[in-house]
Specification:
Length: 327
């Protein structure tokens, strides 16, 4: 079987996780696109990773690669992903897929029109512990779920990071809070409405946001921030028959064992999971879907529904009211 070829837009830090993942999945990165292809930084990046071609973003779109990975700042997700799809490339785009549900709808329609794969890159979903979490919730072992609590935050100390820029789609909800929303949806389905409060910078960026997702029979709380002293990734699911707790739940690539704890009337147990590369599993899935070997686990419509919830949370935080989730 021929090697599946990829192009990467930008030399972001996350690209350093995707390049080895692409190779582990049997693919290869043949071109990287950057703002200044002649810069020493671009040339050094390509040399470090053994990428034969360096060009502009447009050069990647015009190349003969089969798929494009887009980890650019959030405001560049929609235009460059759409360009890739229309150029006949499959697209793996970092979360959030877009800055609102209308943009996500546009990309989903473009993927359907072109017949190309489009995936929002939540690599944590390809971790075995997430599959097991979902199995436990669906099985009814915890009873009827009544409460979900998700927290994801850290200290963002680089003042020039685009995540401090509202025009580029900065903010804690877009960056890390989206994970807590995504997992809540994965475990409980789609919320009917939301409430939220946020702490804003003078530039209009949510440095911290806390919200509640209103499900039929359950409430889901989420907390996210850029100014927490210790990095936090935490999950609690409370049901009528038991409780599940996990730290490190959103890790996309784990180098040590992870575990969660389940407590029911029958006792308490822990389930442990070996280190796993969710990035490689995600890339392998994209490649198999592109080759027609399996169906997409998370089609573009899922990203549209995700964007609708984020839109509602922002509206609730800005307007101080409960907001229904469209669709």
């Amino acid at each position: 079987m021929a090697v599946f070829t990829w192009g990467i837009l930008g030399a972001a830090r996350i690209a350093r996780a995707l390049i080895p993942a692409i190779r582990a999945a049997g693919g290869e990165v043949t071109v990287v696109g950057v703002r200044d292809p002649q810069s020493e930084r671009a040339r050094s990046f390509a040399a470090e990773w053994g990428i034969p071609q360096v060009g502009s973003y447009a050069d990647v779109i015009a190349s003969d690669v089969e798929a494009v990975y887009n980890p650019l700042p959030n405001d560049a997700h929609r235009p460059w992903t759409e360009a890739a799809l229309r150029a006949g490339k499959h697209a793996l785009t970092e979360k959030p897929l877009c800055l609102n549900a209308d943009e996500a709808r546009r990309l989903a329609d473009t993927a359907a029109e072109t017949g190309k794969v489009l995936l929002e890159a939540f690599a944590y979903r390809f971790q075995p512990h997430v599959t097991r979490l979902r199995d436990i919730v669906v099985s009814g072992e915890l009873g009827e779920v009544r409460a979900y609590r998700g927290a994801f935050g850290f200290g963002l100390t680089r003042p020039d990071d685009f995540r401090w820029n509202a025009e580029q789609g900065g903010g804690a909800l877009y960056d890390v809070g989206c994970y807590t929303v995504n997992l809540a949806r994965l475990l409980l389905g789609e919320p009917d409405s939301v409430t939220a409060q946020a702490r804003w910078t003078e530039g209009g960026v949510d440095v911290g946001l806390s919200g509640t997702l209103h499900f039929a029979g359950a409430l889901g709380s989420l907390d996210c921030a850029f100014d927490w002293g210790a990095p936090t990734q935490r999950l609690t699911v409370v049901g009528t028959a038991g409780t599940l707790d996990m730290d490190g739940v959103f890790g996309s690539k784990t180098d040590t064992e992870t575990a969660f704890r389940v407590r029911t009337a029958g006792g308490e147990r822990s389930e442990t999971f070996a280190p796993h590369d969710g990035y490689a599993a995600m890339v392998a899935h994209v490649q198999r879907v592109a080759r027609g070997e399996e169906a997409a686990l998370y089609p573009p419509e899922d990203a549209v529904r995700q964007a609708r919830v984020l839109d509602a949370l922002f509206a609730a935080a800005r307007e101080g009211r409960q907001v229904r989730v469209e669709g």
